[in-house]
Design a protein that fits this description.
With about 950 residues, the protein is an alpha/beta fold. It is built from 36 helices and 23 strands. Strands 1-2-3-4-5-6-7-8 form an 8-stranded parallel β-barrel, surrounded by 5 helices. A 7-stranded mixed beta sheet has the order 18-19-20-17-16-21-22, sandwiched between helices.
Length: about 950
C-alpha cells in the first residue's frame, strides 16, 4: 500500500486498465443498459422541483455560482447590514431574468422570482422599474426572498434538519423502495466541544434509526468530526481516542441491529483510519454483527490495496466505493508541500477506470458486501453486467443527485439502492453543500455532462478505459508535478510527514545538534577581503553565478537533514518549520538565479540612426547582509544570494542567537563554487553590525529585523558626508491585523488564526497580532478560538507532536512575560506551559479599541477587538493609521470586500480567506511599507534591481565616417 501512495499514474493504472476493460460483447450489452438508464435520468430532469432547480441553475453559469456562494454563507449571517452586502455581491451581476418562468415547476419559478427581485434591488440603478415597484418593501423583503431560495437549496441536499425529520421524509412515496445512510453533517471538529456534540448527534441518530431496524436504514460516521486533532503528528493522542469512540458507536449500532459505515477522508488520514477500523473490526464483542463498514475513494491510488485489506479482515465488511470528495484540496496540498507525486489520479477518466477495477475486485471478494455509490449510467450498467443475476450488493446515491437512475432498477428489477442522506440544520450545510456541488457540477462529471445538450449519448457514455489507454495513463497535462510547478524553475522538495515512518525518521534526525564550527569575526579584514574579491566575482559571467546558486540549492536539499537539525536545535524550529526553512532557502537560490539570468542581460535601447544605445547592470561592490534569528537560514541566504548572483561580494552577519545555521550555509555555498572571499561570515552581536554599516567600503546593506534597528542603520549610512549614498533594503515587523466579517466561515477563520498567531511561537514578521471580529459574530468565534487554543501542544520542537516551541532567548521571554503580566487589555485565554524552558503560553487578550495596540509583541500573543457591520473601510483606515504596513488578512465571502481591502489596505501582503504566514518565493513576494520596511519585496521580480548599478552606454557609430547602416539601405521594396 505504501509503495502506491505517490507512485506515478501510469504505473498504477496499467493493471487497473486490464481489470476494468470490457470484452466487445459485454461492451455492447453495457451500452444498451446504459442507454436505457440515460433515458431514465433525462426524463427525471423534468420531474420534481429539485431536479428542475438543478437543471435551471447549473454550476457552470454565473447564476449557479452565485447561488452556490450565497448558499455557502447567507444563512449564517446574523446581521441585516452584512446580509444585504452579501446579496448585492452575489446577485448583482447575474442574469436572473433569463430564468423567469422557464421551469415547469412553480416552486422553481417562485424561487427565481425572489432572485429577480433581489437582483432588481441590488443590481439596478435607483430608477429601475422593478426597484420602483417594490421599493416600499425594501431590503427586508429581499432578504426574505433570498432566504427562501437558500432554504430551498438546503432541502435539495439535506434530508432533514433532525434525524426524525429525515426518517419521516424517507417514508414519503418518492423514496419508496430505497433505504438511507444518515450522515449527521459533521464536518471536522475544531474543539473538544465540537467533537462531543457530533458524538452525541451520532448516538442519538443510532437510537432513532434503531427504533425501526426493519426499515434498513444505517448511519455514516466521519472520524474527523469526533476528534479535533485527527492528524498523523497527533497519532498517539487521536487514534486511541477515536478507536474508543468508534467502538462505542459500533457496539450501540450492533445492539440496535443497524449498520454503521466509516466515511473516507483526506489521503493523509487513510492509514490512521485503517488502524482505527481494523481495531474495531477485530473486537470479539462485534463477532456476528455484519453491519460494520467503511468507504473507499476510487480517486486514491491506494484504493485497490485498501479493498484487499478490507477483504483480509476476519469478518464480513460493508464497503462503500465512492469516486472521492477532496480532489481539489488534495491536489493543492501536494503542490504546497512540494511532495513527490499526487496521492490520487489527476484525470476524471482515470478515477472512473480505478472505480471499475476496484468494483470488480469487490464483486469477487469473499468477505466484502459491496455498495457502489455512483450517478454515472455507464458505471451502473457495467456493474450490472459484471454482477449478472446477483443482487448481493447495493447501489448508493446522494440525496438530491441521480434521481431517475435507480428507480426502475429498485422497483422493477430487485436491485437495492441506499440514499446517502445528510441530516442537520440548513445553516450548517455550507461546507458540505459546496463540496457536493463542486464535486458533481465539475465540467468533467457525469451529472454535468448529462445536462449539457451539446453532448451526444456516445460522448456521455464514452469508455474511460479507452480514454486513459489512449494517453498511456499519463497525468493531466495541466496539473504538473510539484517539482515542476514553476515551469523552468525547479520547485523545492518537501517531506511527506503524513507517512509515519518518514515522520519518525525525521524526528530522529533533528533530535541532536550537529557539530558546526563558527569562525570569529574580524570585520575590517573581512571587508578588505571582500573588497579585493569584488572585481573578479563581478566580472564572472552571470550564467556562471546563477549556476552556482542553483548548485547551492541542490546542496541544501542534499544536506537537508543537517540543516533541519540545526534549525530545530539552535533556533527552536518545529519540524514543519524547519522543512519550510530549508525549502525557502533553496527556492531563493533558484528564483534569484532565474531572475539574474533574465534581468542582467545587455538591453539594446531605441534611438536615432547612427547610434547604439545599451543598458547593462553590474554589481555595486561589497554588501553587508544582516539577518534575523527567526528565519536564520531562509532570510540569511535570501539576502546573501541576491547580492551574490548580481555580482556583489558579501560580508554576511547572522543573528547572534543563530550563528551555526549560518556557518553551515556559508560552508555549503563555498563548496558549491562561491569564492571564499566573495562570501565571508561575520558572526557577532550589535557591535559587528555597527562596524559593518559604518565602514565606507560597504556599498549596500540588506537588513531584516526590528524597525528601531533599521532606523539606526539608516542614520549610520548618512553620518559620513563623504561617503557614497548607500542603498538600504530593510524588512521589519508590523502590527498585522486580520479583519473578519459575519459571512466568514468560523471554522476556517479559527484554523487560520491559530496558524497565523501561534505557529513558530508567534515569532514571524508576518504573524497575526490583532484579530478584528465583526461585533455580530465575535462571541462565537472567540469561544471556538479558545477551544482550539486548548488543543495546542507546547514542548520540545524536535517532537513531532509539538505545535509551539520556546521563544528564542531569555530577553524575548522576559519582555513577553512581562507584558502578559500587565497587558493593555483583558486576558481572555492562556495556556499552561512546561515548567522548564523559555515557553511563553499562547495568550488571547481583548482590547476595548483597535487603537489600544501600538506595539508589536513578537511572540504567541494575540489581541482581539471588534468592529461594527458596514464599517470595513473605516476599520482598514484605523489599522493603516498605526503606520505599519507588512501583512493584513481578510476573511469574507463578499468579493467586493476583498476589492475594498486590496484598494485601501496600506500593506505589502494582503491575504484573503487564508492564513497570513508562509509566503512562497516567486508566488507571494514578501515585504512591507511604512514602518514595516523599504522594499523591494524579497522573492519578487523587482528585488535584484536594488542590488545593482544601472549603466547606460551610448555610442555614435558614425564618428569615423558616414552612417554605413543608413547608406546601405535598399529601396524598401520599391
Amino acid at each position: 500500500m505504501a509503495a502506491q501512495y505517490r507512485a506515478p499514474e501510469p504505473d498504477i493504472l496499467k493493471p487497473l486498465l486490464a481489470r476494468a476493460a470490457l470484452t466487445p460483447d459485454s461492451r455492447a450489452r453495457v451500452m444498451g443498459h446504459a442507454s436505457g438508464l440515460l433515458a431514465d435520468l433525462r426524463a427525471a430532469q423534468n420531474k420534481g422541483w429539485v431536479n428542475q432547480f438543478l437543471q435551471e441553475y447549473r454550476l457552470n453559469s454565473s447564476e449557479g455560482v452565485a447561488l452556490l456562494s450565497l448558499a455557502e454563507a447567507f444563512l449564517r449571517v446574523p446581521d441585516p447590514e452584512t446580509a444585504d452586502l452579501l446579496i448585492a455581491d452575489k446577485l448583482g451581476d447575474a442574469d436572473w431574468r433569463a430564468h423567469t418562468g422557464e421551469s415547469n415547476s412553480s416552486l422553481v419559478n417562485i424561487a427565481t422570482w425572489g432572485l429577480v427581485v433581489g437582483r432588481a434591488l441590488v443590481g439596478e440603478g435607483d430608477q429601475g422599474p422593478l426597484r420602483r415597484l417594490i421599493s416600499r418593501a425594501g431590503e427586508p423583503f429581499v432578504r426574505q426572498a433570498v432566504g427562501a431560495a437558500m432554504r430551498m437549496m438546503g432541502e435539495i441536499f439535506v434530508m432533514g434538519r433532525t434525524i426524525d425529520e429525515a426518517m419521516a421524509r424517507m417514508r414519503k412515496p418518492d423514496n419508496r423502495g430505497f433505504t438511507a445512510s444518515f450522515d449527521m453533517l459533521g464536518e471536522a471538529a475544531r474543539t473538544i466541544e465540537d467533537a462531543a456534540r457530533y458524538f452525541n448527534a451520532y448516538t442519538n441518530a443510532i437510537d432513532a434509526v434503531g427504533r425501526d431496524p426493519a426499515a434498513g436504514h444505517s448511519i455514516s460516521v466521519k472520524l474527523s468530526a469526533l476528534h479535533p486533532r485527527y492528524e498523523v503528528t497527533q497519532y498517539d493522542r487521536c487514534v486511541p481516542a477515536l478507536t474508543e469512540m468508534l467502538e462505542a458507536l459500533a457496539v450501540q449500532a450492533a445492539g440496535k441491529g443497524i449498520a454503521l459505515t466509516v466515511d473516507a477522508e483526506e489521503s493523509e488520514r487513510l492509514e490512521m483510519s485503517l488502524d482505527i477500523i481494523g481495531a474495531v473490526a477485530a473486537l470479539p464483542g462485534l463477532k456476528g454483527w455484519d453491519g460494520f463498514g467503511m468507504a473507499v475513494q476510487a480517486y486514491g491510488k491506494r484504493a485497490r490495496p485498501v479493498v484487499e485489506w478490507a477483504n483480509s479482515l476476519d469478518r464480513l465488511m460493508n464497503v462503500r466505493l465512492v469516486k472521492g470528495a477532496y480532489w481539489d484540496s488534495e491536489i493543492k496540498r501536494t503542490q504546497v508541500e512540494g511532495l513527490s507525486d499526487y496521492p490520487l489520479f489527476t484525470r476524471k477518466a482515470a478515477t472512473d477506470v480505478s472505480y471499475l477495477a476496484v468494483a470488480r475486485d469487490m464483486l469477487d471478494a469473499k468477505n466484502i458486501r459491496p455498495a457502489f455509490a455512483s450517478h454515472n449510467a455507464l458505471t451502473v450498467a457495467t456493474l450490472m453486467e459484471w454482477a449478472g443475476n446477483s443482487r448481493e450488493f447495493e447501489f448508493q446515491r446522494l440525496h438530491g443527485m441521480g434521481d431517475g437512475l435507480y428507480e426502475r432498477l429498485v422497483l422493477e428489477q430487485g436491485y437495492h439502492c441506499r440514499i446517502y442522506a445528510p441530516v442537520g440544520g440548513h445553516r450548517d450545510l455550507l461546507a458540505y453543500l459546496v463540496r457536493r456541488l463542486l464535486e458533481n457540477g465539475a465540467n468533467s462529471s457525469f451529472v454535468h455532462q448529462l445536462a449539457d445538450e451539446n453532448l451526444s449519448e456516445a460522448d456521455i457514455l464514452a469508455d474511460p478505459v479507452q480514454k486513459i489507454a489512449a494517453v498511456g495513463g499519463t497525468r493531466h497535462p495541466s496539473i504538473p508535478l510539484p517539482i515542476d510547478l514553476f515551469g523552468d524553475r525547479k520547485n523545492s522538495t518537501g517531506i511527506d510527514l503524513s507517512d509515519r515512518d518518514v515522520l519518525a525518521k525525521t524526528a530522529k534526525v533533528v533530535a541532536k545538534l550537529p557539530a558546526v564550527e563558527v569562525p570569529k569575526a574580524d570585520v575590517a579584514a573581512s571587508i578588505e577581503r571582500a573588497h579585493a574579491a569584488f572585481p573578479a566575482w563581478s566580472s564572472t559571467a552571470v550564467e556562471q553565478r546563477a549556476a552556482i546558486m542553483e548548485s547551492l540549492a541542490d546542496s541544501f536539499e542534499a544536506n537537508r537533514d543537517e540543516l533541519m537539525a540545526i534549525c530545530v536545535q539552535e533556533a527552536f524550529k518545529t519540524i514543519p518549520d524547519a522543512i519550510g526553512e530549508v525549502r525557502e532557502a533553496a527556492d531563493f537560490c533558484r528564483y534569484y538565479a532565474q531572475q539574474a539570468r533574465a534581468g542582467m542581460q545587455l538591453i539594446e535601447l531605441p534611438g536615432p540612426t547612427g547610434e547604439r544605445n545599451t543598458l547593462h547592470l553590474d554589481g555595486r561592490g561589497v554588501w553587508a547582509t544582516i539577518a534575523p534569528w527567526n528565519f536564520p537560514l531562509a532570510i540569511f541566504l535570501g539576502q546573501t544570494v541576491a547580492a551574490l548572483v548580481t555580482g556583489n561580494t558579501v560580508v554576511a552577519k547572522p543573528a547572534p542567537q543563530t550563528p551555526k545555521i549560518a556557518a553551515a550555509a556559508v560552508r555549503l555555498a563555498h563548496q558549491a563554487g562561491v569564492p571564499e572571499d566573495a562570501l565571508i561570515l561575520a558572526p557577532g552581536g550589535p557591535e559587528v553590525g555597527a562596524a559593518l554599516t559604518a565602514d565606507p567600503r560597504i556599498l549596500g546593506v540588506a537588513f531584516t529585523g526590528s524597525t528601531a534597528t533599521a532606523k539606526k542603520i539608516a542614520r549610520s549610512l548618512l553620518e559620513d558626508d563623504d561617503r557614497p549614498i548607500v542603498p538600504l533594503i530593510a524588512e521589519t515587523g508590523g502590527i498585522n491585523a486580520m479583519i473578519v466579517d459575519s459571512t466568514a466561515l468560523p471554522e476556517q477563520v479559527v484554523a487560520d488564526v491559530v496558524t497565523s498567531s501561534f505557529r513558530s511561537a508567534g515569532q514571524r514578521c508576518s504573524a497575526l497580532r490583532l484579530l478584528l471580529l465583526q461585533e455580530d459574530i465575535a462571541d462565537g468565534v472567540i469561544a471556538m478560538l479558545k477551544g482550539a487554543m486548548d488543543l495546542l501542544v507546547l514542548g520540545d520542537p524536535a517532537d513531532p507532536r509539538t505545535d509551539v516551541g520556546p521563544v528564542i532567548d531569555q530577553g524575548a521571554y522576559d519582555r513577553l512575560m512581562g507584558y502578559r503580566a500587565a497587558p493593555k487589555g483583558k486576558v481572555l485565554k492562556t495556556l499552561d506551559s512546561p515548567t522548564t524552558g523559555l515557553f511563553v503560553p499562547p495568550t488571547l487578550i481583548e482590547l476595548d479599541r483597535i487603537e489600544d495596540l501600538q506595539t508589536e509583541w513578537f511572540g504567541p500573543i494575540l489581541h482581539v477587538a471588534t468592529w461594527p457591520a458596514g464599517k470595513l473601510s473605516e476599520t482598514i483606515a484605523r489599522v493603516n493609521a498605526k503606520g505599519y504596513g507588512l501583512t493584513m488578512g481578510l476573511h469574507s465571502r463578499i468579493a467586493r470586500a476583498g476589492d475594498v481591502a486590496e484598494a485601501e489596505a496600506a500593506v505589502g501582503n494582503l491575504y484573503v480567506n487564508r492564513s497570513m504566514i508562509g509566503a512562497v518565493v516567486g508566488s507571494q513576494p514578501f515585504g512591507g511599507e511604512g514602518l514595516s520596511g523599504t522594499g523591494p519585496k524579497a522573492g519578487g521580480p523587482h528585488y535584484l534591481y536594488r542590488f545593482v548599478a544601472e549603466r547606460a552606454v551610448s555610442v555614435d557609430t558614425t564618428s569615423a565616417g558616414g552612417n554605413a547602416t543608413l547608406l546601405s539601405l535598399d529601396e524598401g521594396g520599391i
